What does this fold into?
Amino acid sequence: MSDVTQDEAPDATADQAPVPTPARASRFAGPVITVMAGLLVVVALLLPNQPIGLTAGAFLRIPVEALIVAVLLLVLPGRARTAGAIIAGLVVGLLLLVKLADLGFFSVYARQMDLVLDWSLADDGITFLTGSIGRAGAIAAVVLAVALLLAVPLLMIFALLRLGRAFARHQTATTRGIALLTTVWLVLALVGNPVADRGASTFLTARTGMVNDALHDREAFAAAAAVDAFGSVPPSQLLTGLRGKDVLLTFVESYGRSAVEDPAMSAQVGAVLADGERRLTASGFAARSGWLTSPTFGGYSWLAHSTFQSGLRVDNQQRYRTIVSSDRLTLTESFRRAGWATVGVAPANTYAWPEGDWYGFDKVYDSRNLGYAGPKFGWTTMPDQYTLTAFEKLEHGRTDRGPMMAELDLLSSHFPWDSIPEMIDWNAVGDGAAFAGMPERLAPGIPSSQRDAYRTSIEYSLTAVFDYLELHGNENTVVIYLGDHQPAPTVTGPNASHDVPITIVAKDPAVLDRIASWNWSTGLKPAPDAPVWPMESFRDHFLSAFATGSGS
It folds into this structure.
């Protein structure tokens, strides 16, 4: 029996708050969920599609599209209101997905997502993720992306269905609220106040126009590719100013104008350029440098390569597929027609590359046949120093060959800059086994800042180029090295240009005399006021400068 009497028993209600009943909790949660549904729709309509627009002020506005949807949900009867909520939810959900995709694209590529053409790049994206974060990480990322694609429209449909039911239950209050907000919107719109927002409608209109342009661009571009002033030039008149020379076209991954001019990077990169110029000058070389405007930013290197080689702006995958299916004369093919042996060195490729035939390469080396026995450096299959060493051993250093033209793609400065090699003794490079353990040893020292890591990678790649030229260049060596595009906006900051440096290095003064009229800067570093050309214009400038009878 209890020792506590009834009079002595504690009063359960004296010091404790009443326990909420399920009905009371439901009455509280219902309005909260409805308000959150409304906020979700408004945020989706107001969300900017560029990172630079993500400010508090961007969401302190009244979207006219929300008012229109609210009126429809209010006036439509039962089933029609349900159908309207589903349609509107689907549209707003898709709008939000496009904006989220744009935010991602602007963060990496400084442009909007192309809703027609960029889907074809999914395989390349998965390949990149697999190389960067492993197969399991890539699968998880794909699963998350698919879940997001499904969840966002469903969540928006749920939100608008809930709002429709709430409006039907509170017609009088809803009518007054919509009338008040509409009046405010109209007044603000008349005086040009940005709080009266119509950005979602403008965005959808612009995107519809972009889709239409993309659908009609293929035929126009194919027609442009078929017109080629150099396509019928006799081989005997092509590149006569370079006869007997080895021409090495070298793409330095992500070597952009920001690396040379951004105050946070220019001092260190400038020191590498100055040291390279000092050493190459002592070896008898001279150089001229300018700027090219790349068709891409942050990635899609193959668009820049095909633009540079073809003389046409290739700024999307549809154009790339069109150009590589054409008979457009490339720089490589012009050398092959004129009698040069042509070689491609593409260490990023891990499978067959049929486009090599279109470029005009007699032989292509890639990750499968360059003989590399060392470790990967993050996404990069091999360090630049090895790529150049293998090229020298397999092709350039051979004594039984004639003049060659080669394109070399250097990868060590490729995003995400999470594994940057160090230079070693060139005589120790061998088959790459000397790099074993280097990624793990250097990992703790990788800069936490993407900008610093990128800068370090550019310093490494440029050093490798200058070392190679100093070691293996001669009177018949001509090197054209350039960036393919700027690095991601996380490095350059917003509103950076698409410009990349380009430099031509040679010992024979007659080579640089041919381009004197270009007014490029003397040395390895282009001046801020050096000429800026569209990348697609280089082919014609180059073929004209070195054709029969051409000169400065």
The radius of gyration is 31 Å. Confidence is low (pLDDT under 50) at residues 1-15.
